[in-house]
Structures are given as structure tokens and as C-alpha cells.
Amino acid sequence: MPDSTDLIQGTLDMLILKSLSLEPMHGFGVTKRIEQISQGVFRVNPGSLLLSFQRMERAGLLDAEWRASDNNRRAKYYRLTAKGRKQLKLETSDWARRAAAIARLLEA
Amino acid sequence: VFRALRAGLRALFHRRTASRELDDELRHYLEQAIQENLAAGMTPEAAERAARLRVGSVEATKEEVRAGAWEAHVDSGLRDLRYGLRSLRRNPGFTLTAVVTLALGIGVTTTMFSVVNAVMLRPLPWPDADRVALIWTHDVRRGLPREGTGHATIADWQASSRVFQDLAFYTTQRVAVVETQPGGERGRTRNGLVSGTVFSLLGVAPALGRVISAADLADRANVAVISHGFWQRRFAAVPDVVGKSFIMEDGGKGGPRVLTVIGVMPPGFYFPDQNTGIWTPATTYWRFDRESGERHRRGSARLRRADPGDEPSAVRGQRRRSGDLCRGGRSARGRSNPCVLPGWPPGGAGGSGDRTPERLAASHPVVPGDRFR
Questions:
Q1: Residue from A54, A62, A77, A78 to probe the interface with B (highest B Cβ count within 10 Å)
Q2: I want to staple B171 with a disulfide (CB 3.0 to 4.6 A). Which of A84, B283, B288, B366 is the partner?
Q3: What is the ipTM, given to two decimal places?
Q4: Contact B353, B111 (CB under 8 A)
């Protein structure tokens, strides 16, 4: 397995929102997606993940429901709310702005 | 915010459910991780080991998630509280000391405030209260300071006083008020037996009807002015109370008397204390005749209003001129001998925590002669 890094502070929420914007998922699904898409650069610790879920669910960005998973086990699926979608948009544009700025600084 | 509150409360009160859900979620996470490792071709043992390594301690994770929510603070507060209570139970000596200290502290503070509030902060319920003085006499012969004044003496002073604008007298007695007819339910109140000038001297007009007049005194009319509270309690605050009657037992030889209401005082007014619910003409007191000729023997308290511009020294001068009664004894202020104290309250004697007039009651103010406590 390649070296992995900790997530950049404050980006976990955004990455979760992005993963869930495609389809409702359970916790492990979100972890896997983040790891796959980042090609193993980012690894998500389940504690931080669930904490993030809890916070965003209470903030109304996510809805959660218990359903049977693929292998017929009970799993908690998270889904983006309208508010969550808006938040994702906001954070994405914010992130793009910052990344561009940092890139410019590094190239200068 | 509402969502967060609801979720937090649910976690607090359905702790077991919340904990189980978290458990389920984590277990599912772990199973998924194992599945993935198996799919990657690991042996079952290796797959589980790797997954557990990856997920870490379930309990630690749960704790981490729980600590991230606001209700965790409430929870730890409750735990601290429980711990505190247990400690108190283990150290009964310390607990007792703390409780007694708190109780005494609160009690003393409350009492002090009641006294200060009654004596110093709340104004008396009549205008220009600082121009009203209470007068009493010292019974030199029997060595009783601050006694009431005999009715004949009051009459003398009424005739000769040049310093006071007005002069009134009163006493109070405990009476029973009988509901509607004799034998009915009895209530207690104090009856203020007053001269006709009391209300005008205090400068308070009735809210309804009229106050006691000189004619009422002369006729010994069975009339009563009632307090606002008495009106509300006894007459349910009916607007046409003037002219209605009630029965009062004052222990007199004439038995119960039927009194007609002639007036209601405004709310907040009381005289001389808040227990006095009715006022009747002083001459209706059943021992009035026997005592009205007395001079200084038993004593009574009188009240008079100084003329505007009078200095306390003038009032004291008046007192000296008014006779021998002021010799001996000490005033409440500790100076010798002033039996007239300008201003109200009349000195610093402590009451029982009630308002200033309580002190007046403590100094046996009485009118035509007898004493009631």
C-alpha cells in the first residue's frame, strides 16, 4: 500500500459531502471512495468519519436512515440534503480559490 | 440548531439506543473492511486482523464520537454532580457544616434585608411622612417608658398646642369579624380605633366613600372604614360596598356589633400596621367612657403633624412646655427624655421585621387609654 497522509485540516467534511453527492452511502463506502479516488493518498479514520457524520447530520447537511445493505446487513446510509448540496458548492468554490492561490504562490 | 438539540436530547435520554446505533454502525464498518480484505485474497484471520488494526478500538472510537457532541458536556456535568453527592454522603460532618453555614447565611441575609427594606427603603404609605410624628408619654410613676397617653391629656394638648398643625389619636385592638350573621365563620383582623382627624392628618383620601367624621365620633356611630385588602377578602371587591354591613366582635360588653361600611381606603394604605383591616370611631370603644377622663395614668399614643417650617427643636420645645410627662426615661435613640420625636418613624427601636408602624405598636400606642398588644 502506498504511503498515505492525513487529511488536510477541514477538508474531511467537504470530501464526505462530495462522495455523498453521487449517491447515498454508508460509512465504509465513503471511506473507500475517498481512498480510491485519492488513490490511497488520503486515509480516513473511522472515528473522525463518524464524528463528522454526527456533526453534519445535526447541522442538517445530511439525512441518515437505517437500511439493509448489499449483503443484507443493517447499515446506516447517509444522504445529502438540499442544505448539504449548497454547503458542498460553497466549500468547493472556496477550496478552488485557496488551491489556486497556493499554486500561484508556489510557482512564483 | 433545533435538529442538534433534538438529536442531543435523544442521545441523553435514550443513551442505550444511541450507543447501540453507534455500535451497529461501527460493526458494519468493520465487517465491510473484513469483506474488502477477503476480496483482496487474504485469509480470513489475516483479513480480520488487518481490518481491526485499521478500525482501531471500537470503544475508543465510540468515545471519540460521543465527546464531539454537546450533550457530552451535560453528561459529564451530571457525572460530576453524582460524584459530588456521593462525596457529601460519605462526609456527613462536612455536609452538615456546609448546609448549616448556607442556611444561616441565607437566613441572616434575608432577615437583614427584610428589616432594612421595611424600616429604611419602603416609604410609608402616606405623603410627607417625615412631617408626621408619633408622641407617647412616659409613665413616671410606674416607671414605664413610652406609654400611651390619657385621653384627657390629649384633649389638653389639642387645646394648647401651637406647634402642630393637626393632632390625631388612635389605638388598635384585635377583633373577630363574623361572616354575615352571629355564629357564622369568624375571621380575625385588627380594628383601629381612631379620632376623626387621622385620615386627614395622614393626607390620604378614601378610594370609595368617606372617612370617619367628627359627627361619627360624637354619635358613636357603628360605622367602619375598611382597608383595600379587607374589601377584597370580605366583600370580593364589590363596587357598591358602601352601605353594606358586617358583624364585629370586640370583646365588649355590648356583644357583637353590626358595622356599616362607609369607605374603602386605597390599595397600599395601611395604618398603623398591615394587620389593621378596619377603622372605627374611637368613641365606640366599649371602655371609652371609663377611660376618657383619665389623665396620664395609662397613657395613649398620639400622632400629630408639625407645621411646615417647624424645626425639630421647636417640636421638642413644645414637648417641654407640654408638661411633666416627659421627664425620665430614655428615647429609642438613647438620648434622655424626648417624648416627642419629630418625624416618622419615631426612633430606632427594632420592630419584628415589619414596617415602621410595627415599632409604633411595640411602644403601646393606644388611644383612649387602655393598652392592647
A1: A54
A2: B366
A3: 0.81
A4: yes
